[in-house]
Amino acid sequence: MQKITKWIVPLAALFAIAAFLYIAPPGLLGKADAVGYAVCHRISERSFHIGERQLPMCARDTGTFTSAGVTLLLLALIKPKRGGMPAKKIAIALGIFFLIWAVDGSNSYLYLIKQTYEGAFPKIPNIYIPNNTLRLLTGTGMGMGMGAVLYAAFNQTAWKKLDMRPALVSWRDLGLLVGIMLLVDIGILSGSVFILYPIALISVFGVLTLLTLIFSTVWMMIMREENSFTFLRQMWIALSAGLTLALIMLIVIDILRFRMTGTWGAFPLG
């Protein structure tokens, strides 16, 4: 079985990459748009722009997936092979970040419905007027939690010699992560093309990394390869399979959404 997968998985990965590149709009940002198109509504007014060009994802998702990608990368560099979930006090903080994200998202969605459909939910007031700064910041907090939990779950599944200490164990750990992401968010809010262009790609990296790790974890469990790896290079088949499944999911969603809407832009409102 392993000999077969060593041939099938790389071929499937090449096919999935080629198929994605074929269906996606032209240009590097066009490919990034195709990733964002599968996970985000891409409403222009709720997105940041490079000049007149909208980023691949809305402000909230830009914050979420940029933060998740940075969190995964930072933890892999400074706390390798840590498999413990965040310490209790850190988990509570991340839970608060999630609740803030949920409240802001619900309030923002209610505001969108009221703007789109006149007279909708007249008795339900908005808590406040939503804006892209709040969307970015709340998305950033959510992304930290997603990245931290997935990092621990993946490590628990992959490594033979696992360090079960939490990657986020102290306020110093969380403070470092929050500080880095606040600097990133300030850069995004500056509107500089020199920051927004890389952020467009980093946010897409976050999406692909999250999906790849999720599907790779599932692959390891299906193939009964849990806790069998000592080095990263040994799991290239599992990671390739995860990337392949992630791309297939993105391709299917892109095709279905494009057939429904006929555009690579936002979902039509009204």
Walk me through this protein's architecture.
The protein has helices at 2-23, 28-39, 59-78, 88-116, 132-158, 171-190, 193-222, 236-261; strands spanning 49-50, 53-54, 82-84, 163-166. It has 270 residues and is mostly helical. The protein has one domain (2-261). Strand 1 and strand 2 form a beta hairpin. Helix 2 packs across helix 7 (193-222), helix 2 (28-39) packs across helix 8 and helix 3 packs parallel to helix 5. The longest helix has 30 residues, at 193-222. The relative contact order is 0.18.
Helix content: 55-70%
Secondary-structure content class: mainly alpha
Give the biggest beta sheet. Answer: 2 strands, antiparallel
Strand order of the largest sheet: 1-2
